[in-house]
Amino acid sequence: MEKVLEALAPNIGPEAPPNPYAHSLAVQALVALGREKEARAELREAIRDFDDGLAASRRVGWVPDSWKEYTRMVLRAAGSLKEHRLVYDLYRRWDSYHVVWECVYLAGVAAFNLKRFLQAARYWAAGRRDGPPVRCRAAVALLADRGDIPLSLWNMNFRLLTNWKASRRKPLLPRKSATGMLPGA
User: Fold this and answer.
1) 174 pLDDT higher than 50
2) Where are the domains of the chain?
């Protein structure tokens, strides 16, 4: 990861033009190296650079899709720091600039981790067809909202974290009896 940071240095230094993509990559590299304080500073730079570039584009009357795609990288960077509230807030703040399916996925993960299960379900149910099947996650969020499944946090890398708790709720499927038969069979 140190090599990644060396390669990014010319793109994130004080004299570099706004580059939210490079700052977001630096955040992820710094998180991997355990340098959270520096990662947070880079995240602030990524957000500032995106907002500055957005303002400049709006002044000329057009925001290119290539710039809009940076929302994904900034949301990923914030997610790598487990800043779920920030991911959620940035998604809403930049709502009209998301052009890739992953943004709605990340917003859903953030909402889920903030225990806003119904909002997560809405995000994932609205997921575009060009991404992986995020809609099935909407069903999981609805079950979590009802308290039917024992989930903790989801991370931003499409995996479930392993902090499972035993559920005291009635199982979703009936258990086999002592004879090995399902009840009523």
Assistant:
1) no
2) 1-86, 100-166
